[in-house]
Amino acid sequence: MAETTSKRVADFLSREVPLFIGGQHRKSLSGKTFETPNPATGKTLATVAEGDAADIDEAVRAARAAYDGAWRDLTPSSRGKILWKIGDLIEEHAEELADLESLDNGKPKLQAQFADVAVAAELFHYMAGWTTKLEGNTMSLSTPYAPGAQFHAYTLREPLGVVGQIIPWNFPLMMASWKLAPALACGNTLVLKPAEQTPLSAIFLADLLTEAGLPDGVVNIVNGYGETAGAALAAHENVDKIAFTGSTHVGKLVLRAAEGNLKKVTLELGGKGPNVVFDDADVEAAVAGAADAIFFNQGQVCCAGSRLYVQSGIYDDLVAGVTEAALNIKVGDGLLPDTQMGPLVSSEQLERVSGYVQQGLADGAVPTAGASPVSGPGFFYPATVLTNTRPAMSVVTDEIFGPVLVTDRFDDATEAASVANNSIYGLSAGIWTKDVSKAHTFAKKIQAGTVWVNCFNILDASLPFGGYKQSGWGREMGHEVLNAYTQTKSVVMML
Ligand code: NAP
Ligand code: MG
To answer: How far, in Å, is the centroid of ligand 1 from the Cα of 325?
Structure first.
């Protein structure tokens, strides 16, 4: 078993991982804890305080007090400096954070460092700049029922108040930063509930927030189970908005729970991204891109390219290339330097992925790579490519959330658009072609929040990210996310 070389991380793991409420590390009110395993070994990695509805209530109280107090009194520029400093501290502690992400989630440490941690830092830096740029407008009124009257009218962009945020386990620190940074930039205070499978990096981050000068209670972090802590946060009457990332099924539960006080809701949900390769594509680039689109992060990526559609003339070449890439991936413990793919996050996820593949095989799919679990310990599953699929198979319709690629062929762009859009999801899509006109024409036909051309999984703090159809409501990142964490007030004065 590979171990962390960081003393700080080892110390962090050796003690009960606390809740973070009102700037304090605390045990849960019930005293309960749960264990988080290392998915590379299945053995316990750390013991974690298990918050429930009572702890959520305390956290919401702390967030409300901070919203009405210290946080609102800070100037936008001071807020921006704190956010920038958080980004700097994440960079300074990149190696420790990458160790924690790898140990808790299973992902390769190098990928954690250069993707998860770097993106998290970048988002805080990007959002730091927005704190001073939240502007309203002035309007000239021509109110028909007040002829001759003169008005001075303007809008204010104001924060929402206390925001609840619920995140998944696939990119724990990155998901936390996507949620925290914009909400803070807009002047809200928050309660974050990480996923039970990956409770560690958010609590490690808490110390960096304090070090950056964030006032107590502005960010509160409560680990615990979705059915208890998560549900309590979504339903809480004193929470003004809930921002959720996770499965479409739980997203709908969150929506219902939010109904009580009609809190604002944004949802970042699942996907089943089509990756469409035309026969004029650079085949070598498309092979590498198609493999990376599904196997990065063990396929546990909401915007993964999990359905590969290839124009008939080059279908066999593409499948042969992706199969070879899949067979060559080095699977192992995420902390080992040559590991390219780690274990799945949990035994449940391993069961889910292998269950889907078994069903696919029973339905007639033919594997060219993978398709049977790697023997334990640890929750490993190999990079898998399935051919001979049909549109109604569950491996084609459902989000598997694992390293499983389904492939099919098409004859022309009309057919390609039809199969690509044949999904309840609409988060991401890829197009591979050298024809610029075809690329842009096809991009317009795709029902997805992000379309990549001759690349995949390129995300940036400046690019809005979110779903069409059942992949969600609202956008994260870019300046569009500011709409999700502010509300507009119109002020009208008669002159
Ligand atoms: P999930 O159940 O939707 O979990 C996402 C978050 O919601 C977690 O923090 C979870 O807490 C919490 N949660 C669960 N039940 C809740 C409830 N009733 N009320 C409020 N919060 C609740 O996703 P998952 O179980 O981790 O994975 C299942 C599937 O979700 C995956 O296989 C995949 O299809 C999808 N998924 C999508 C994304 C994405 O980025 N779009 C990310 C992860 C998973 P606990 O984990 O503590 O229960
Ligand atoms: Mg874990």
So the answer is: 30
